[in-house]
């Protein structure tokens, strides 16, 4: 297994994650009001964003450099970020990635905070996406409550 350190990226260093995305031709970007997390193996080899939403976070921008894929970088990075942020986390993914996220404790959901529900509907106009959640939100855990969080 690759020797790896996963840490929160200080705001002034956010450009380092932006550079990683650009170097590899990724269309991903850092979230303006979110936390950026990176995985380092001497240099940055992966990153993700956690953006506050409702009473939890929206996970976006997960990227691992091609040479480090298949070495558990994404799994370890997600686990580090979510251990430091014990709240519900939502993400949108290609349905082919559902099993990967499922192994990390995510499950499909139709209960999303309104800000994410409208965004997902917009995104689904051009590509198939699945909404997944890890952790319980108050709306999904309260019997009889049928509203989104």
What features would you describe in this structure?
28% of the residues lie in helices and 30% in strands. The chain is α+β, with helices and mostly antiparallel strands. The protein has a single domain, classed as Gcn5-related N-acetyltransferase (GNAT) (Aminopeptidase, 3-Layer(aba) Sandwich). Strands 1-2-3-4-5-7-6 form a seven-stranded mixed beta sheet, sandwiched between helices. The chain starts with a strand and ends in an 8-residue tail after the last helix. Residues 1-130 form the N-acetyltransferase domain. This is GNAT family N-acetyltransferase. Pfam families: Acetyltransf_7.
* Number of beta strands: 7
Given helix and strand content, the structural type is alpha+beta
How many structurally independent domains? 1
User: How would you write the strand order of the largest sheet?
Assistant: 1-2-3-4-5-7-6
Report how far apart the termini are. 39 Å
* CATH T-level topology: Aminopeptidase
Helix content: 25-40%
Radius of gyration: 15 Å
The CATH superfamily is identified as Gcn5-related N-acetyltransferase (GNAT)
Helix and strand string, N-terminal first? EHEEEHEHEHEH
What kind of sheet is the major sheet? 7 strands, mixed
Looking at the structure, what is the overall shape? globular
- Which architecture per CATH? 3-Layer(aba) Sandwich
Percent of sequence in beta strands? 25-35%
CATH class: Alpha Beta
Low-confidence spans: 138-149
* Count of alpha/pi helices: 5
Organism: Pseudomonas farsensis
Protein name: GNAT family N-acetyltransferase
InterPro entries: Acyl_CoA_acyltransferase, GNAT_dom
Domain N-acetyltransferase: 1-130
